[in-house]
Design a protein that fits this description.
This protein has helices spanning 4-11, 125-134, 155-164, 180-188, 203-209, 215-231, 253-262, 295-312, 316-323, 374-378, 381-391, and strands at residues 40-49, 53-63, 69-70, 83-87, 97-100, 140-143, 168-173, 193-197, 238-244, 267-272, 314-315, 345-347, 353-354. With 406 residues, the protein is of the alpha/beta class. It has two domains: 4-87, no CATH class; 97-323, TIM Barrel (Alpha-Beta Barrel).
Length: 406
């Protein structure tokens, strides 16, 4: 059944990309019922039959040979009502959560951090205000990126501005800047949640991973923040724990959790192995590349030890649910293959929106929250086509290494 005219009337700009990563094993090209070529790929759309009856999540075929869209023969189709409309805009399009990179500067030189290889700069506070104006539906902001947020001289101005608009503020820190002044400002600014990265319970191993860092200083800073918060009647911030683990440290989660809790950490967030994304791998030292083949094993170890940690501490998911913060960002599956339906908006310090926090290069100058309302970006045809492909699990090359593509 040829749906090409209906598709083009609805959204001619939505089309599977020609250059995508291989589809999952066991999914060969489909047979096109329009031209007979074995060049079709399955996509998902809602189809209307007759004047009002919509069928959700139908599997259609797009043929790379004839560039047509067809509905394969299948049982249960209405015999007396032909297709009259199609809608393939099925990805999440009502975001309320923003992940914004406030700075790429850091006082650590962690060997696995791509931020040390990016332009070192801060977002301007005036640009931050314009961004808030252009994203009126935002309800929570994670001031998180490839740098240490507390090094930004305008960090607390941005946090207060967001809070004055009723926006919850979350952030991540390496914990090195929890001096008396910053501890007071963190509490006064009303920052809801701050997580601290700890890669090892051993000071020497910690210093080798988080180059420039001192574990004792981080732990002392966490303790100071928790004591000041509690001693002065502040409810926030709650303090979370996360980190990166490698060969030799993947078994340290229980010890790290015990140490962090003893110094005032409230929340268990997550641990992760080395990032295998194409964006990151080129910056890794040659003597660290042997970590890459071990990622799956380390990830399994992290999953094993994280489960009891989640039972022993409140998780970040539980905390955000209690606070009414919509933390889950995974959206809806498509019913065909693993997909990407990110519900957050990710913004570089340049204001450029990218599909996820792993993409460090702007894809389109029109996707800039300093210059354009979010609504206009969401309706941009290029943006829509990227989201259409990601939602259908048709991943472009820059997604190489993401767990969703492996």
């Amino acid at each position: 059944m040829d749906l090409t005219p209906l598709w083009r009337d609805a959204h001619a700009h939505l089309r599977p990309l020609t250059d995508i990563l291989p589809l999952p094993a066991g999914e060969p090209p489909a047979h096109c019922s329009l031209c007979g070529a074995d060049q079709a790929v399955a996509v998902v759309a809602n189809v209307r039959f007759g004047s009002e009856h919509w069928r959700s999540g139908m599997h259609l075929h797009y043929c790379r040979s004839c560039q047509g869209y067809s509905l394969p023969p299948q049982a249960g189709l209405p015999a007396d009502a032909p297709p009259t409309a199609v809608d393939a805009r099925l990805w999440s399009a009502t975001p309320t959560f923003l992940n914004l990179e406030p700075t790429t500067r850091c006082n650590y030189s962690c060997w696995y951090c791509v931020g040390r290889h990016m332009v070192q700069a801060d977002i301007a506070v005036d640009d931050f205000v314009r961004l808030l104006d252009n994203f009126p539906s935002v309800r929570a902001i994670a001031l998180v990126g490839e740098g240490e947020p507390l090094l930004h001289k305008g960090f607390f101005d941005m946090a207060r501005t967001a809070r004055e608009r009723g926006v919850r503020v979350l952030t991540i820190s390496n914990g090195s800047a929890f001096n008396a002044t910053n501890v007071r400002k963190i509490c006064e600014a009303g920052i809801t949640y701050i997580s601290v990265s700890i890669d090892s319970n051993d000071p020497a191993t910690f210093a080798a991973s988080r180059i420039g860092g001192k574990l004792a200083k981080v732990l002392s800073g966490i303790q100071s923040l928790a004591q000041y918060r509690d001693g002065n009647g502040y409810r926030y911030p709650r303090i979370g724990l996360k980190g990166s683990l490698f060969a030799g440290t993947e078994k340290q989660i229980p010890a790290i959790v015990e140490l962090a809790r003893a110094h005032g950490v409230d929340i268990f967030e997550s641990f992760q192995p080395l990032n295998p994304m194409r964006t990151y791998v080129p910056i890794y030292p040659k003597d660290k590349l042997s970590e890459l083949p071990q990622i799956d094993r380390i990830a399994a170890s992290i999953a094993h030890d994280s489960d009891p940690a989640r039972h022993g501490m409140k998780t970040v998911q539980q905390f955000c649910a209690e606070e009414g913060i919509r933390l889950d960002k995974n959206g809806q599956p498509n019913g065909i293959r693993r997909n990407c339906d990110e519900e957050w908006i990710y913004t570089l310090l340049s204001g450029d929106v990218t599909p996820c926090c792993q993409i460090k290069t702007p894809l389109d100058p029109a996707w800039n929250l300093f210059r354009a309302p979010l609504e206009a970006i969401l309706k941009d045809q290029h943006y829509e086509n990227v989201r259409f492909n990601l939602w259908n699990g048709l991943f472009p090359a820059y997604c190489t290494g993401c767990w969703k593509t492996r």
